[in-house]
Amino acid sequence: MLSKSLVTRLEYQHETIADLLQDLSPEDMNKRLSPKKWSIAENVAHLGRYQEVFLDRIKKIINEDKPVFGRYKAEIDKSFEKWLEMSTDEVIESIDIMGKEIFHTINNLTSLGLTKKGKHPKLGWMDITEWAEFYLLHEAHHIYTIFWLKNELKA
Length: 155
Known about the structure:
The chain is mostly helical. It has a single domain, classed as Four Helix Bundle (Hemerythrin (Met), subunit A) (Up-down Bundle), CATH 1.20.120.450.
């Protein structure tokens, strides 16, 4: 069974991204404050692309017997480039649509469905509840980064 906290974050956490971006110009979105660190726009594009990756992994866990996944690295993901070329509005719209799909896919699983497992290369075997927590913490990390970058730009 999913905790109330997990369900709520799955349903709403992604909405924080659009809230944080409301008053930013395209120039601010694309500005790198450090040459080796992503801009706000790059972080947002990464979150959109990672939703696709995560949703694909969850569907494989549901439909296959104990799939094994490689580590996701945006730097070598050719599909990430497509996300970098999208407008912020397009990325936010896609994040909202996929966020809802992720929520409904996981929230509608039975207790037995939630116990299905997939193997992460570093974290090992995780059931869908653990994958969801991993996904949410990853998303929260980037939301936190976006928050910091936005406030550093204003400072």
